[in-house]
Amino acid sequence: MRMRTLGLVITLASLFGAAALADDLEPEMSEPAQTTAAIDAQVMPLSLDEAVEFALENNLDVEVQRFAPLISGEQEREAWGAYDPELFGEFGYADIENPSTFTLDLIVSVDKSYDGFGGFRGLVPYLGSYYNFQFDGSRTTTNSTIQALSPELRSSFSLSLAQPLLRGLIWNEPWTRVKTTRVLYDESLEDFRRRVMDTVQEVEDGYWNLIATGEQKRVAEKSLETARALLDQTEVQYEVGVVSKVEVVESEAGVADRDFNLIVAENRYQNAQDLLINLILGTGFTADSRIEIQPTDRPEDFITYEIDVERATQRAFERRPELAIVDDEIERQKLELKFAKNRRLPQLDVEFRYGNRGIAGDLNASCSFPGCPVTQPDNRTFGDSLEDFLGNSAVEQLSARAFFSIPIPNTAARSKVSQGELSLRRAITNKRRLEQSIIVDVRKAVRDLKSSQEGIEAARRASEASAEQLRAERIRLEYGDSTPFDVLQREEDFVQAESREIDALQAYRISVTGLNRAEGSILKARNIAIDRISSVR
User: Residues 282-304: pLDDT tens digits?
Assistant: First the structure.
């Protein structure tokens, strides 16, 4: 398959190159340029499998939809980002003068300090716990006569943990967002699968429509040739006096009518070409494209299907991405309802905190209080202050607190729960509605397939009968028992019969595709793996 695709890509590139070269050479050509689409178009043979593969590679609708799961995946990772530990810190300098009324220290004290703190803090997934680990340090110099140390070096650490017991336990906002974004990611994958199914169906329908319009064009061309031959025959008969001028006019009217029909058929064929080329080539289809797809698959051979409607419906319930999407929506509404019910609870949090402190420094030369030490203490560096709280002599701090609050009568939270319950019921009802719609889709698809199979046989019989009637009418005309008008009428009947046979074959192929789409098995029927085509090109 990869080698075949590579060959098609090379062929397509050569076609574009040939078209571009023709554009470059056109002004220099001495002969008038060919203008008809049939002459200018570069023929591109293409099977249905290849058309689908090209579409999955190049179709812009598919390409746009590829981004949705990637964006949803990033949103899920963004939600997990709420649990990233945060490194924080704050540092500063202060120079403060304080007049004093303290009888032991009547001077204006000047305190200069450097201080700061830093640590880690964050949330614990699922439980909603909040943790904080913090280290503080400061260096202060003073001219106070009652301070024993200057500079005074202080250090401390603390570890705190806050745990919600009611509101915010499990169904807190960050955890709810993690859960809902995961559901939305799954939903985006299913929506991508749905869009791919729709694109494959469009390509298959467009492929068979191109074949049908091509056959209609062929029939119109054949009908015009028949009418012109009849006109030539009638003109010869008129010249020898066998028929009247009226019959010549009738033959000319038949040619004009079939000429008009061919113009309409040609227009429909070109529109079908553009539609399919746009589906499978994307940006490769431009305003000056001169590509003509030549389908290599033919719709004449068909398999008679016997479909069990109940089994087909069950398969649709199991495989349709639309149902998976509404199931994800129901799951998301359930998560939102759990969060809303949790917000209705009172707030009851507990906090535990543990820490200790250390101190070191030099003797304050300005200290004149009788209690001031006369010898220098052993600890003189900031590192020595750390040894205090890491050792047995640490000054420990331990606390536990509880917090309680509840709005009365808690109107907002209760209303949010009511909204969540209604949204969940609506999502469940929407699923039931979708199931009913799927039942209708499957029944219609089965009925269309059955009637199209029967229609092919009926159309073929009608076409054979019309061909025989036309042959007989021509023989009668040769013997003078008929008129050109009668032959044209029989020929028109034959054209209509051939058109109905073409329409029946197209309806059959489209019905097969429609049933596969209704059952949700269209990708499986084409051996298309979503994982293989989901990456952005």
Answer: 888 888 888 899 999 887 767 77
Q: What is the DSSP string of 2-55?
A: HHHHHHHHHHHHHHHHHHHHHHHHGGG-SSPPP--HHHHPEEEEE-HHHHHHHH
DSSP state of 347: E
Q: Which residues contact 34 (CB under 8 A, 6 or more apart)?
A: 40
Q: What is the DSSP letter of 404?
A: E
Give the burial string for 146-166 (b: 16+ CB within 10 Å, else e). bbbbbbbbbbbbbebebbbbe
Please say whether the dihedral angle defined by the alpha carbons of residues 380, 383, 386 and 391, taken in this order, is positive or negative.
negative
Per-residue confidence band for 397, with pLDDT thresholds at 50, 70 and 90 = confident
End-to-end CA distance of the chain: 18
Q: Find the helix packing angle between 60-80 and 48-58, rounded to 10°.
A: 50
Q: Which H or E run contains 273?
A: helix 245-281
The pLDDT of residue 238: 86
Sign of CA dihedral 371, 376, 379, 385: positive
The DSSP annotation for 108-163 comes to -EEEEEEEEEEEEEEE-TTT--EEEEEEEEEEEEE--SS-SEEEEEEEEEEEEEEE
Alpha-carbon separation of residue 469 from 364, 463, 487, 491 (angstroms)? 127, 10, 9, 9
From the list 530, 529, 514, 518, the residue with the least C-alpha distance to 314 is: 518
Q: 0.90 cut: is pTM over it?
A: no
Q: Give the list of residues 6+ apart from residue 468 with CB closer than 8 angstroms, or none.
A: none
Length of the chain in residues, anyone?
537
For 406, list phi and psi in degrees, rounded to 5: -160, 130
Peptide bond before residue 409 is cis, with ω within 30 degrees of 0 = yes
Structure tokens at 144: 């106070």
- CA torsion, points 201, 204, 206, 208, in degrees to nearest 10? -140
Burial of 489 (C-beta count, 10 Å sphere; 0-12/13-18/19+) = middle
Helices (H) and strands (E) in the chain, counts: 13, 8
d(CA 69, CA 183): 11
Rounded-to-integer distance, Cα 123 and Cα 128, Å: 6
SS3 526: coil
Top-confidence residue, 35 or 500: 500
User: In the numeric block, which tokens belong to residue 471?
Assistant: 């042959």
CA–CA gap between residue 10 and residue 230 (Å, rounded): 47
CB 417 within 8 A of CB 167: no
What helix, strand, coil percent values describe the chain, rounded to 5? 60, 20, 20
Can you read off the two tokens belonging to residue 97? 């003068």
